[in-house]
Amino acid sequence: MDLAGIALGDWRAQGRELLFRGQRIRYWVAGQGAPLLLIHGFPTASWDWHYLWQPLAERYQVIACDMLGFGYSDKPLGHDYRLLEQADLQQALLAHQGIEGPVHVLAHDYGDSVAQELLARHHEGRFQMASCVFLNGGLFPETHRPVLVQKLLLSPIGFLVARGFSRHKLAANFAKVFGPHTQPSEAELDDFWSLIAEQDGPRVMHRLIRYMPERRQQRDRWVVAMQRGDVPLRVIDGAVDPISGAHMVARYRRLVPEADCVLLEGIGHYPQTEAPGEVQRHYFDFRAGVD
After folding, report:
1. Contact of 117 with 85, CB cutoff 8 Å
2. Beta strands in the chain (DSSP E)
3. Residue 151: pLDDT band by 50, 70, 90 thresholds?
4. Backbone angles phi, psi at 22, to 5 degrees
5. What is the pLDDT of residues 32-87, one digit of tens each?
6. Contact 64, 40 (CB under 8 A)
7. Strands of 117-253, DSSP E
């Protein structure tokens, strides 16, 4: 199933602006109906959802932002980037849109961790989550297999690695994590790189990567939240992703009761761009059961 997608220039033009703790955040809203919050991954931005945006907006009110340090949002130097703050941002965005009731969530990669925090807050009475679908992400620190550049960014020389990050290195790393037959085109790589390079984004990558130890700190709280069972959850996962593919899903099935998992054979770390039609079909199937 082929989906049309949205050109990056058109996507940027449709964005709106929110001020969050003194920082400018770029966000997008479309459609009507039950609110659906889309949360992107590292190191890209909300444009990752562009193939799914219009199909989802035909059924739901879709909301997404480029999180702090990503895409077209501000990327302050020296900032202590935290997943917990990114969850605060998602709640601020929803409040800005006047959304108070239960929210459905669709997340990917780094966004999975933000969604896990929102799920934990749901159980603590600080957020209302109607359902959540996770795409490839490090739901369990013990199964996360970071690529070399991620390890280097987290090391004492991370700031040097960040300064030297380039489109060439992005392409080399994406080649390893995308499926063998669903590699990004040169034009897609140009667009992904432009989002990262906006406001000299590589300068903060070594600070953004600190989400990896933060996930370990929150691990037990987040796993317990997934095990509670009162919020419908599904994992839609590209099976051949070396970072969080089939091995992560196997762990999810062991730890989460009545685990609802869909494995996409031959698909890598970015199923929403590698196989958007499949993601759409499995998401709509999930929502049919929830709604």
Report:
1. no
2. 16-20, 23-30, 35-39, 61-65, 103-107, 129-134, 233-238, 261-264
3. confident
4. 85, 0
5. 999 999 999 999 999 999 999 999 999 999 999 999 999 999 999 999 999 999 99
6. yes
7. 129-134, 233-238
pLDDT tens by residue, 223-246: 999 999 999 999 999 999 999 999
Contact 125, 151 (CB under 8 A): no
Distance CA 187, CA 9 (A): 13
Rg (CA), the chain: 17
Select the more confidently predicted residue: 116 or 148: 116
Distant-in-sequence, close-in-space partners of 252: CB < 8 Å, separation ≥ 6: 139, 140, 235, 259, 261
Determine contact, residues 286/133, Cβ cutoff 8 Å: yes
**Which amino acid would we find at residue 74?**
D
Tokens of 40: 């992107």
Residue 1 pLDDT more than 80? no
The contacts of residue 129 (CB under 8 Å, 6+ apart) are: 102, 103, 104, 105, 118, 119, 122, 231
Q: Within its chain, how far is the Cα of 21 from the centroid?
A: 22
> Closest by alpha carbon to 75, among 214, 209, 198, 210?
198
Query: What is the amino acid identity at position 228?
Result: R
